[in-house]
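Dear H.,

Thanks for agreeing to be a second pair of eyes. The structure we're designing against is below in token form, covering all 819 positions.
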């Protein structure tokens, strides 16, 4: 369906329900009797329209018993339609856009004779009015109104009529009959819009005018909230039931990088719109600097958006304001798939491939390891994955590659999405070419991985008098022989006794560069035992506080444009350097006292446990026995891969979770802000570990939870589903069931439970008769279940149908007897 909003609204309002009994067929051609039925439904409503009948055939080819006869007779009487002049109506003939537009114009109050919608010039006059003041072709400007109209196109035109202003005439003039028998109207005043005092303002329009739906469809209402990406929307309800939300059509749309000056030009502006009247929303969140400082002015070369980024511009000419929304498309993989349950729809977990955030998404369309393209909103209340589609796989011969820009397969070039990794790298090792071998380099890429590559030729430093220096930042391209060509952008320097970065602060101290922002890529080298680890962070909100001491540290920063760093490299491997509260080395172990030891002659004695190691679900070999579940932040690994775990800096454990709200997540009875790349894991009652997301956390007072806080933000969460052993009868509710009218039996609504004696009872008053009953409904602890019990009066005493048996979640039971 092309015109989804129109079809949904018109169907919900009953305009396209009924007719000839067919289902809504969007591509079928609308015929004349269907059009008559639609107009009748619009004017009198479906219920009344279906009751319209006629005892006389309105036309020779329309029997009085035909399903559409009532509507055809009604529209003929109202001057909306007419026959062919020979007594026939041709009910199954197709309707053109112009013919349907004429019907809608008359329904809006336009007089066919006054507006010359009859006679030889009817078509040009109808087109002028329909495309002008009535705006009946809104959203379908590419459609020729002289062509046959499909049902969905008719829905769009009727939908436009619903929103159009009604008109009336102060004076309809005088009919003059000419010598040829035709009539003309003279002295009529122009059609004018008006306000009907009896009509509700259910479309919420600010102008003091009445639209068609405000008079003829009072149950339909319209509001204008924003969607998950802050785009203005139309939200329709019918009879208080939501029909749907539909994003407004943007005034301008771009899917590539665009200059602000081009937006100014494309909007046809003649004056600058100040920054205070221009708002930016990136993935649903209001963007801070620099976007908040941007105005729209002529010739501004500032660029926004990018390839594969949907940039939409909404211009309110009356208010003089512009809203710009930017929506990225991310790449991810499906890491888990969950079937629907009684309480939850089927859903999957999307794990990002590059820097970004994933999470749960309700669908049953994907399998584990599927690669998907998805959108993500950071708007409060809508945080999470908003859409996902399976990525198209292209196979063929790689014939060209430009790092971070494009790949060429079988001669066709595919440009990189702007959310993908960039084509920057840090040179960790380098050797010149020899007689037999290419020059080689080990590169640290912007995702934190390293790669050994062959080079197209030797690489010199910026001065050109020596080979490229280690820790230089370069850009690269790759040819069809998989050879990298490097361009040196900046060369390293050293820093000592200084704070290089402070989490959340845009001020940095990297050589001559002192500013970073939310898009800066930080590549940080740290020491882990005998190994060097590399970590990539995107943005000042994610990079940890890094300090260097007396031992000088190699650092480097590249600024592509402006003053903010594009890429930063920091070698923090020296013992005097500190990476405070790094989210690395967060290990959760499924400790178990029943696990036995293993032994071999190389590793010695060790224990194997399921674990989560820095975001990876895996199995570890531990040098110590771990008897219970726990989270650790310090790890030492011997040469055989056996781990020794210790430390829990920043780790909290406890009970209870609550869903995310206003940027905070409920853990252990308190609420915490969380990092953008916060990792969430769930352990079920069988000990199975799966990835989850912030959006997948629900309110549960019994779950056990461990989490790591880094620089005030939660970076890792592990939730363990708790099986409750509670089996307490916390109360009983009582209801009296009288056997006859002679009974005066009454009971207190709440009974009594004696926990120590394991008994329950109710308080009875009045005079019961034989056959009277009291129903005891149990109230039990969370996760437990229990049966109802009925006590019956036999004329002298009460007998119970049995005890109340409380079954805990873990299967254990407790029995309570009635008294």
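And this is the sequence the design step returned. I haven't edited it by hand at all.
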């Amino acid at each position: 369906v092309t015109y989804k909003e129109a079809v949904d609204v018109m169907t919900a309002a009953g305009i396209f329900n009924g007719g000839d009994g067919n289902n809504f067929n969007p591509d079928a051609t609308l015929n004349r009797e269907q059009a008559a039925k639609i107009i009748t439904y619009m004017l009198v409503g479906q219920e009344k329209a279906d009751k319209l009948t006629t005892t006389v055939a309105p036309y020779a080819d329309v029997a009085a018993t035909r399903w559409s006869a009532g509507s055809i007779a009604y529209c003929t009487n109202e001057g909306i339609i007419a026959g062919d002049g020979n007594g026939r109506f041709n009910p199954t003939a197709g309707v053109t856009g112009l013919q349907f537009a004429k019907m809608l114009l008359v329904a809006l109050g336009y007089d066919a004779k006054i507006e010359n919608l009859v006679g030889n010039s009817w078509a040009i006059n109808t087109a002028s009015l329909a495309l002008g003041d009535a705006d009946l072709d809104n959203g379908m400007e590419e459609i020729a109104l002289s062509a046959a109209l499909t049902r969905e196109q008719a829905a769009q035109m009727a939908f436009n009529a619903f929103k159009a202003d009604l008109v009336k005439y102060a004076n309809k003039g005088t009919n003059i009959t000419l010598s040829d028998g035709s009539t003309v109207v003279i002295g009529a005043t122009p059609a004018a819009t008006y306000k009907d005092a009896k009509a509700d303002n259910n479309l919420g329009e600010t102008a003091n005018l009445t639209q068609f739906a405000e008079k003829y469809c009072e149950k339909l209402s319209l509001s204008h909230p924003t969607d998950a990406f802050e785009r203005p929307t139309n939200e329709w309800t019918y009879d208080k039931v939501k029909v749907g939300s539909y994003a407004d059509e943007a005034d301008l749309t771009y899917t590539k990088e665009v200059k602000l000056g081009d937006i100014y030009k494309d909007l046809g502006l003649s004056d600058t719109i100040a920054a205070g009247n221009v708002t930016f929303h990136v993935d649903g969140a209001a963007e801070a600097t620099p976007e908040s400082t941007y105005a729209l002015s002529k010739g501004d070369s500032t660029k926004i958006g990018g390839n594969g980024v949907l940039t939409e511009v909404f211009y309110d000419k009356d208010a003089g304001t512009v809203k710009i929304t930017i929506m990225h498309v991310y790449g991810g993989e499906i890491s888990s798939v969950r079937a629907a349950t009684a309480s939850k729809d089927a859903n999957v977990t999307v794990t990002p491939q590059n820097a970004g955030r994933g999470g749960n998404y309700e669908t049953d369309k994907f399998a584990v390891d599927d690669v998907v393209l998805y959108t993500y909103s950071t708007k409060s209340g809508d945080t999470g994955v908003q859409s996902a589609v399976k990525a198209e796989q292209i196979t063929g011969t790689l014939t060209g590659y430009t790092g971070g820009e494009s790949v060429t397969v079988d001669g066709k070039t595919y440009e990189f999405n702007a959310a993908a990794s960039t084509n920057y790298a840090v040179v960790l090792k380098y050797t010149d070419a020899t007689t037999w071998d290419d020059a080689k380099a080990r590169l640290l890429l912007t995702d934190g991985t390293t790669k050994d590559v062959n080079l197209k030729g030797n690489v010199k430093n910026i001065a050109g008098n020596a080979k490229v220096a280690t820790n230089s930042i370069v850009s690269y391209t790759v040819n069809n022989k998989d050879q990298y060509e490097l361009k040196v952008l900046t060369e390293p320097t050293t820093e000592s006794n200084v704070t290089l970065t402070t989490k959340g602060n845009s001020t940095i101290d990297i050589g001559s560069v002192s500013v970073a922002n939310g898009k800066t890529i930080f590549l940080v080298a740290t020491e882990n035992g005998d190994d060097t680890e590399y970590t990539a962070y995107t943005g000042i909100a994610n990079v940890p506080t890094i300090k260097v001491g007396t031992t000088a540290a190699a650092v480097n920063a590249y600024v592509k444009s402006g003053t903010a760093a594009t890429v930063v490299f920091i070698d923090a491997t020296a013992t005097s350097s500190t990476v405070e509260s790094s989210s690395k080395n967060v290990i959760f172990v499924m400790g178990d006292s029943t696990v036995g030891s293993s032994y071999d002659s190389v590793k010695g004695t060790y224990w194997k446990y399921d674990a989560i190691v820095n975001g990876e679900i895996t199995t570890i070999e531990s040098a110590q026995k771990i008897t219970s579940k726990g989270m650790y932040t310090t790890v030492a690994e011997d040469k055989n891969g056996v781990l020794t775990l210790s430390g829990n800096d920043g780790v909290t454990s406890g009970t209870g979770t609550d869903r995310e709200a206003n940027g905070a997540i409920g853990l252990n009875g308190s609420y915490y802000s969380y990092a953008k790349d916060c990792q969430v894991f769930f352990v079920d009652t069988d000990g199975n570990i799966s990835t989850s997301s912030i959006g997948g956390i629900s309110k549960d007072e019994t779950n056990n939870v461990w989490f790591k806080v880094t620089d005030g933000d939660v970076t890792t969460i592990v939730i363990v589903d708790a099986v409750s052993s509670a089996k307490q009868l916390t109360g009983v509710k009582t209801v009296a069931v009288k056997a006859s009218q002679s009974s005066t039996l009454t009971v207190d609504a709440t009974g009594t439970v004696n926990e120590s004696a394991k008994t329950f009872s109710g308080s009875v008053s009045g005079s019961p008769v034989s056959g009277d009953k009291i129903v005891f409904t149990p109230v039990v602890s969370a996760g437990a279940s229990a049966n109802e019990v009925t006590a019956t009066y036999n004329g002298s005493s009460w007998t119970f149908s049995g005890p109340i048996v409380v079954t805990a979640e873990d299967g254990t039971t407790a029995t309570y007897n009635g008294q």
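Two observations from my side: Confidence is low (pLDDT under 50) at residues 18-22. Residues 4-179 form one domain.

Warmly,
E.
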